[in-house]
Amino acid sequence: MEEIIADSSFYVCFLDCIQDSQSLIKIIDKFKMHMGKQVLGEIKKSSNFYKIQNKTFNLFNNPNLNLGEALRPFITEEQISKGEHEVIILAYVFGGTGIDFWVVIDEKSKRNLLKRVVPEVSDKLLGTINFIGLCNNKYNIFNKQESLTILDKITSSNFRVKPEIIADVKRELI
Length: 174
Fold this sequence. Notes:
Helices cover 50% and strands 10% of the residues. By secondary structure, it is α/β, with parallel strands linked by helices. The protein starts with a strand and ends with a helix.
C-alpha cells in the first residue's frame, strides 16, 4: 500500500471547496494517509469533517514533538504553526525509509521550501490537481469521466489553482 502525506488544503478541497467527500474517501481507502496534529486540527475545522472522521489516519501526535520546530532555521515562528511544515518534516522522515509515498502540497512557497530543504523527495511532490491525475492514470481510483468531473468542480470552486494546471492534467487523463 502506498502512502500519502498531504497538507490540509488537499482535504479541504474535497470536503469544502467541491463538497465531494465520496471521492476523498476513495482516496483514503486506497492509501495509507499520514498527518501531524496541526494538519488534523486544520481539517477538523471543516463543517464536513464528520464525513471522514471514522477513516483511518496515521497520526503523528506526540505532544512533546513539534514537527515544525525542525524547520526553524528556514522559516519564521508564525509559519511554524501551519500544517504544511509538518508535511515537509514527515516527507523528510519518510525519505530515508524506502517507503513508497507521495507528498501533496498546494502552496507554491511551501513546495519550493520542500524542494530546497528535502531535495531528495522532490520527485514525490505533487499538488492536489496532479494527484487527481495520478489517481486516474496510475491507481484507477477514478475513471476519466470521474476525474474530469472533479476537475470541473475544482475549476468552479474557490480552490486556488492556475487554470493551465487543470488543463494540463485534463489532457493527460487516460
